[in-house]
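step 4 of 6: structure.
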Amino acid sequence: MKYLIVLIITLSLALSFQSNSYAALCAFRNPDRDTYKLFPRATGYRSVIRTLDAKTKKAMEEFLGQPLDYDEAGEHTFYLVLKGEEVIGIIRPHAERGKYGIVEMVWAFSLDGEIIDFLIQRSRERGTDRLKHDEFRRQFRGKSLNDPFTIGGTKEINTNLIKPPEGVITGPSVIAYSAKKNLFLYKYFFPEYHSISQGNSIK
Amino acid sequence: MGRIISCLLLLTISTFCFVQAEAKESFKKNEDNFFSKFMENSILKKEVILGTSWSDEKSEVSLKNSLGFEVLKKFSGKTGDWASALIQMRFVRYDHEYMLMNTTKMTPAHVDGMHTFELEFHDAYFKYSGRFKGRLNFRIGHFDVPYGLEQNVDTHTTLMQLTAMRNVGFKKDWGFSIGGQLPKMDYEFSFTRGSGAEYRDRGENYLFSGRLGTPADENFSIGLSGLYGEVIDEMGVMRGMKTGAPNIWFDNTTKPGDDIIKCWRIGLDSIYLYGPFTFKEEVSYGEDVNQGVINGVLEIDYLFPGMDERLEAVFQVQSAYQDITASGGDNDTFMLLGLNYRISKEVTIQSTYRHDLQRLKNTENEDIVAMQVYCYF
């Protein structure tokens, strides 16, 4: 009888929620280590979970020229990087599929909607070591949503904008496509930060 | 008492969630109320598992089906996140879920019988991180014993398991820990009850454990672990028994009271990602009371390219060597082949085939086929 009651409660709990949460519980392996590496002045960060609805998913796919992966709908986690109570930037962890599996990246965005830098966590793609070098990464700094990271409608890197390391094929495209995708999400989820000029603080 | 508390906790949480669901409209109208603020930065996932296995030696089908949920809540202030809490619970139905040792049927420690319902807490903890920038955090509740591969490999949802059961008798324990991420190293040290799934205080049981490792967010990571304690481990007691007239446990004719055995381990583990392959290994050495133990596992995972990580093959070998004496020791060695297919974002089918190469004492070798449908939404 006792277990029947518990089963009823558990079933009720499982069915009581109207909206589903599709996001993985944690796609960010080391929020602390990478946050303070990307933002040395930071004193803390605040998690923010946002939901990608059907309408925005469609708009995003039109922008990218590609359908999203089957597990990309739903909720996405961003981190507001703080110095005291002041927001000084945004961190966005993201895993993008390459040829052999996921490439895990951490993007750092400024309050002007530009890329500050990115870090690669785990990656199955060949040549990852060279993608971690500053020579490749610095080409992304200062870029924003209006920059053509990929050839229109494809996932292929635009080599006129970003020069990949010689002989490294898939990885640079994965990163460029991820940049484009996450700048779109940043703009959609945080429109208030795109219009802030330098010097103004947000609480 | 523990079950009553568990039921009350589940009732409280479900009432909380009912109120949240019913308050959805009012939540939208008034986003400043306490409930809506509390639900910010929370993620809820629901889980259904349908599992079955068949063993040629047992000649019967085992079932393990469950309904569960997990809630992750991050606590934030004006200066940032300062804590998190995670609760994973399952309501599980077990039928014929046991392993054979000699001819004795050994059910998991917290499972009371061949046909039973169990309410299980898996991860259930509060972690305080404060303003230490991740270098120091404090955790209290029920969590993975910080030892070996379990620190960085999620076995909560998988058919394939690692060697935690052979090293300490359980994966998670009740207690507290300190840990953190330093620039080049992750660490965690814990002091726990030594009783596993259920909180059981027999006065003498406890466990110290800890792991130091390179950052887990690199393609190659390595860790050094240790544990020492007196733990409640029924299977460990059985492994330490020599049948005879009379039976002898660890060179003593008295069976360990409350199934508590003294144990210690040191271990080395590593994970290496290379293209579509993932290599995992762990080896541990120690003692159960006065019997030497060596446990090891090697696992190779393969993601089939071009399939969006939907299809994965797994090969694993586990070997546990006990009672090391001048004349040799007893050995449990088996290999596993697994195939996992992710049908959709929510549904994964997992299957394994286990073949025993050698079993401890006089236990017959088994061939076991298992399958699990895992739903997470």
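step 5 of 6: annotate
 - Chain B is about 10% helix and 55% strand.
 - Residues 78-376 of chain B form a domain with the Porin fold (CATH 2.40.160.10).
step 6 of 6: archive
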